[in-house]
């Protein structure tokens, strides 16, 4: 009996989303190999031992170029289409990884990381935009979190790659991970160009309605779901028309009054206007998305992941044990926590995840900071050091099931079609800039104070949770026009103003 007869092939949009999500694997693999590579024996003997600040600068040198290119990625995605933007970015990423693999000087290695960052900035933020646009609203949450899930797979694969090559008695010990990364990046670039289907929403925005219908057919999206997306698009166009200054009724002819508004495609040049993200109707959503993605890094997650060996050594774990705990167990924990977070992304809610996740992670960070501030964490004795180690893993789990998924999905799905690419990449740029700050300053903070970094991260987490309680409406399962209404009516600020208006009305009455 054939097993294939019992297995139902998923719709094409699911397979396409999985292919696009592989871009997250490349990002995760680079994140996990750069730390181990820069402390391998052959790498150190070739390039020398660097100070903590220089080491941090080398590790984080990928981030500023990524942030800069991400600001242009929205324009590229709007002009060339999402698949071509992803393919171009992945190709640039592969070139940078190849330069790192072949580096003969430290300067060449750093240049490779900068080029890798330029490619990463172009393609990475576009992944969520593309998946969000090709999937039905009912499946948008779990599929849009695909890049984050693949990022965790990349973290795990990168660790075991370095674990396997570390014993090589040649430069291949540190070159091999980058050779593998460059090869996978080239393959992903080619696959993206050949097999990713153009976004039907992007085609509709360009006025190519026949091509959009054909794309929906290829993606195997059902008619009912297409109608929902068309309603979203029509509602967005109507809203954009309403935002224009109304004409003077005295100057409008009777024929114009009786004629229904013509249904038309937006001017293609409008799609590429970056500053549309700051227009009055979407700027609150833009600022919230940029803030969320920036604070995602100020939570300290990459400070923990980049410098976990140092953190565990401060807790009294030996160097060899530290490497295993920091790389192996951390990666396994991240994968195990991200899988259920991806599957249940549309059940927990975005606002709930961000608020409760922020409060919980903040409490964990403040607990660790309090233990160090009280000077009860000893290198060889006492239970406090084990509390610190367990708390770090608890923090990682909470992050993976809350902020890792919700922040990225929220930043993409709250935007209308015309600004989604630019706003999402702007938010990703904010994420990379703050990531650079965290990666550069964490070793300095840990060297100067055993508790300062944890208090800083905990304070940022609680501040973000408080802001989201006031300004962040829930968007789970909502269409774009409902999301726009939610920002007007469902935030605490909007509710407070309504209460004030009612009170004033009663007072006047």
Outline the structure in words:
This protein has 26 helices and no strands. Helix 18 packs parallel to helix 21 and helix 21 packs parallel to helix 22. The chain starts with 11 loop residues before the first helix and ends with a helix. It is mostly helical and 509 residues long.
Which keywords apply here?
mainly alpha; 26 helices; 509 residues
Principal-axes geometry comes out as globular
Query: Secondary-structure element sequence?
Result: HHHHHHHHHHHHHHHHHHHHHHHHHH
Structural class: mainly alpha
What does the oligomeric state look like here?
single chain
Q: Which helices and strands, and how do they pair?
A:
Blueprint: H1 12-37, H2 41-47, H3 52-60, H4 63-80, H5 82-101, H6 106-134, H7 140-144, H8 146-165, H9 172-195, H10 200-205, H11 209-219, H12 223-243, H13 254-258, H14 268-271, H15 283-298, H16 301-306, H17 308-314, H18 319-343, H19 345-348, H20 350-373, H21 384-401, H22 403-413, H23 417-448, H24 452-471, H25 480-489, H26 492-508
Briefly characterize the structure.
With 509 residues, this protein is mainly alpha-helical. 78% of the residues lie in helices and 0% in strands.
